[in-house]
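Researcher: We plan to redesign the surface later, but first we want a full-length starting point. C-alpha cells attached.
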C-alpha cells in the first residue's frame, strides 16, 4: 500500500518535515533488524481524533526495547507526547501511527551496545489493512508452510523489525497462492498467529485463542481489548493450544490487530470456516470494537487518548 505523506514526522525530539526524516544507509538497525516499533491507530471521535490505548502501545515499545537491550533515551510520557504532537500536526482525524526506535549510524558489527539510539514517530492515513471486503465478508486464510519463530530463538514478546522476516515470508507465500492472509503455526503444529494479527476461534459460543507465550505470538493490544469486549458481552474466553484442525472445525474465526482491526475468516486452506460468512459472535465483537474506538461506548472511554 503506497504511503500518503503527512506534513511532519517526530524525529529525535522534534517535528521535522516529512521529506527530511531520512537516515544514513549505514544505519545499524537497517543491517541487523535490531529496531523495535509499534503500530497504533487514531480514530475520529465526537471530540476530535483520539489515539487508541496509546500508553499500552508506548509501554510495549519500551518493553520491546528492553528485550533487545536498547536503552531508549525518552520516557513513556515523552513518547506519549511525541505521538500526540505528530497526530495533531497531521491535521488528520484518523491515521495509523508508527513509532520506531532504532540504532543509528556510527557503529557497525553485532555488538549494538555502543550505538546511538534514535527514535521517530510517523503517521499516515491507512485504510482497511485486509480490505473493506475482508472486514465485511471475511478473508481467505492459508496455513503457512513457515513455522512461527520459536520463542527460544527470538523473544516473541518484542515487536522487533527483524522478527518480521518470518511474517513477510508467510505473507508472500499466501498472497502468491491467492489468499488474503497467512496463519503461522509453531514447529509443533500449534496455531500461533497471523503475519500481523492474533487469531481467535469460536466454538459453541466460547472464544479460544492461543496462549501467546507458549506459541511465540505477540501479545496483541487489540486481542486484549477483544477479550474484554467478549467477556462483557457474556462470552467465555479461554487460552488454548489449538491445531489447524480446530480452525477448520471452528464455528467462526477472526483475526485482530491494530492495522487489521477485527477481521472475520471466511475460509482456511479452502475450507469454509463455519458458514463461510462472518458469524454472530464475530459480528458482535466487531461492532462493539468499532464503537469503542470511535468513543461511542462509554464503558471503554478510558481506552482513548484525545489529541486536542
Ligand atoms: N501479531 C503480530 C505478529 C503483529 O505484528 C501484530 C500487530 C499483532 C499480532 C496484533 O497486535 P496489536 O496491534 O497490538 O493488536 N501488527 C502491526 C503491524 C502490521 C504491519 O503490517 O506493519 C499492526 O497491526 O500495527
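Model: Full-length starting sequence:
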Amino acid at each position: 500500500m503506497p504511503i500518503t505523506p503527512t506534513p511532519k514526522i517526530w524525529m529525535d525530539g522534534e517535528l521535522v518535515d516529512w521529506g527530511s526524516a531520512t537516515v544514513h544507509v549505514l544505519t545499524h538497525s537497517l543491517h541487523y533488524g535490531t529496531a523495535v516499533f509499534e503500530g497504533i491507530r487514531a480514530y475520529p471521535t465526537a471530540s476530535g481524533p483520539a489515539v487508541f490505548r496509546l500508553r499500552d502501545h508506548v509501554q510495549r515499545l519500551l518493553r520491546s526495547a528492553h528485550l533487545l537491550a536498547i536503552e531508549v533515551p525518552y520516557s513513556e510520557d515523552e513518547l506519549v507526547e511525541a505521538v500526540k504532537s505528530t497526530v495533531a500536526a497531521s491535521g488528520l482525524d484518523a491515521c495509523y501511527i508508527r513509532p520506531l526506535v532504532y540504532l543509528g549510524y556510527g557503529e557497525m558489527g553485532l555488538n549494538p551496545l555502543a550505538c546511538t539510539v534514535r527514535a521517530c514517530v510517523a503517521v499516515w492515513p491507512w485504510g482497511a489493512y485486509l480490505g473493506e471486503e475482508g472486514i465485511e465478508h471475511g478473508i481467505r486464510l492459508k496455513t503457512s508452510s513457515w513455522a512461527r519463530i520459536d520463542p527460544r530463538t527470538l523473544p516473541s514478546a518484542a515487536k522487533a523489525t527483524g522478527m518480521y522476516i518470518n511474517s513477510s515470508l508467510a505473507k508472500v507465500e499466501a498472497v502468491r497462492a491467492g489468499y488474503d492472509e497467512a496463519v503461522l503455526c509453531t514447529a509443533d503444529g500449534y496455531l500461533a498467529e497471523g503475519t500481523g494479527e492474533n487469531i481467535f476461534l469460536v466454538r459453541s459460543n466460547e472464544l479460544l485463542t492461543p496462549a501467546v507465550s507458549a506459541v511465540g505470538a505477540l501479545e496483541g493490544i487489540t486481542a486484549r481489548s477483544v477479550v474484554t469486549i467478549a467477556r462483557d458481552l457474556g462470552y467465555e474466553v479461554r487460552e488454548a493450544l489449538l491445531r489447524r484442525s480446530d480452525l477448520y472445525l471452528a464455528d467462526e474465526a477472526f483475526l485482530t490487530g491494530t492495522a487489521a482491526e477485527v477481521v472475520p475468516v471466511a475460509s482456511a486452506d479452502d475450507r469454509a470456516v463455519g458458514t463461510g460468512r462472518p458469524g454472530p459472535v464475530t459480528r458482535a465483537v466487531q461492532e462493539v470494537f468499532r464503537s469503542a474506538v470511535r468513543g461511542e461506548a462509554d464503558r471503554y472511554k478510558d481506552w482513548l487518548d484525545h489529541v486536542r
